[in-house]
Amino acid sequence: MARHIAVTGSASGIGKALVEMLQERGETTTGIDRDAADVTADLSTADGRARAVAEVSERSGGQLDAVVACAGVSSFDPIAVSVNYFGVVHLLEGLRPLLAAAPNPRAAVVGSIAGTQPAEQAVIEACLRDDEATAMDRARAAVDNGTGSRLYPSSKSALAQWLRRAAVSADWAGAGIPLNAVAPGVVLSPMTVPLLADDAMKKVMDRAVPMPLNGHAEPAVIAAALRWLISVENTHMTGQVLYVDGGAEATLRGPEVF
Ligand code: NAI
């Protein structure tokens, strides 16, 4: 029987590839994005998140088999934190009751290898306290101090830390909902292709994210990993950040991480 799966960031890149893959397999999808989606909502705002939850609830009839949060922005601006952390966590928490009503519910998010890079601890701490106003204040301070480049890594590190805590809680594991992340290296999506066209920028990115196995990935590669994480077959993996990154994480963090 077709499963009903909500995908954020469905208008582009990884989310779009995932929706196409799921539809080819006969699943029912609800895409969520700023525009060109089944549900249009700005996930950087509380109103947008609430509207997305309400519309998905209506479209799904109160029962959702899976949600995958792909929407994200790579930015040196506080918006990276509001979309990549609060836009993911608040949406997932809002949709959780719909998932809990399904027979084999699953959830997955998209992290990043950037989550292992230097970050703003004060932003991460405010995120994990669910204090969006303070997180935004700290993020603006980082921009003023010239460390805006740490906001994207901060958002992805906070997301991975939230996931590690939430996944094993009564709300998620206790309700039978596996909750995992895929963390890509560099993916050839509209987020990166314009940057990679610049030789100097490509060198910077390849130094920051070395990918000895097969280089930059197509969005469908990440979509395939997400598809397995939300499949009925995944009964026991939860709280994991799956690096689908051409070996970047293993190169950068080395064997001592274990
Ligand atoms: P993309 O730019 O092709 O797609 C991102 C989608 O998110 C777009 O459709 C955009 O409209 C949507 N979005 C952005 N802000 C939104 C908002 N406020 N409300 C609703 N929707 C919004 O990028 P891509 O590569 O597909 O990125 C998907 C995820 O993968 C992101 O979370 C990104 O951080 C992550 N990622 C991407 C990498 C890459 O190299 N492309 C590497 C590592 C992680």
Can you describe this structure?
Helices cover 46% and strands 12% of the residues. The chain is built from 10 helices and 7 strands. It has helices spanning 13-24, 46-60, 79-100, 121-128, 132-144, 151-167, 193-196, 199-208, 219-229, 248-253; strands at 4-8, 28-33, 39-40, 66-69, 106-110, 179-184, 241-244. It has a 7-stranded parallel beta sheet with strand order 3-2-1-4-5-6-7, sandwiched between helices. Helix 1 crosses helix 9 and helix 4 (121-128) runs antiparallel to helix 5. The mean pLDDT is 98. The protein binds 1,4-dihydronicotinamide adenine dinucleotide. Residues 9, 11-15, 33-34, 42-44, 70-74, 83-84, 110, 112, 184, 186-187, 189-192, 219 line the site of 1,4-dihydronicotinamide adenine dinucleotide.
Succession of helices and strands: EHEEHEHEHHHEHHHEH
Shape, per Cα inertia axes: globular
- CATH homolog superfamily: NAD(P)-binding Rossmann-like Domain
CATH topology type: Rossmann fold
**Mean pLDDT across all amino acids:** 98
The CATH class assignment is Alpha Beta
Instruction: Tally the beta strands.
Output: 7
Discrete helix count = 10
Largest sheet: 7 strands, parallel
